[in-house]
Amino acid sequence: LINNRQLYFVPVVNPDGYVYNQSTNPNGGGMWRKNRRNNTGSCEGVDLNRNYDWMWSSTTGSSGDTCNDTYRGTAPFSEPESQAIRDFTTSINPPIAFTTHTFDGSYLFPDFSNGSPEYALLQNILMIF
Known about the structure:
The protein is mainly alpha-helical. The protein has two domains: 1-94, no CATH class; 95-129, no CATH class. Helices cover 26% and strands 5% of the residues. It has three helices and two strands; from the N terminus they run ααββα. The chain has helices spanning 15-24, 80-92, 119-128; strands spanning 99-101, 106-108. Strands 1-2 form a two-stranded antiparallel sheet. It is globular.
């Protein structure tokens, strides 16, 4: 696996949300999913998983309401965290990507990857978890 591939790891995409969970739930179990953006009004944060350009304005799976846990932000890549991931992946142009959705422990990879030679490998990795 590693002899002929380059692997890149991004351990935390939402450092502010991670630290917030640590401070509010020091024994674990924090379920804050958004970053800590100060939105207009009383609700904080943007769900970074919904802040990418793919289907950004869809009302299925995301919300335009700042108080909703799936608030997508004011525009695709409006957040510095999603901008950093976009810029990083653009710079390395990976043939395939694999993410861990740590809010609920899901393992995700893009559906279009099933035409990739790595698709079977990813399926085998997922079976381990």
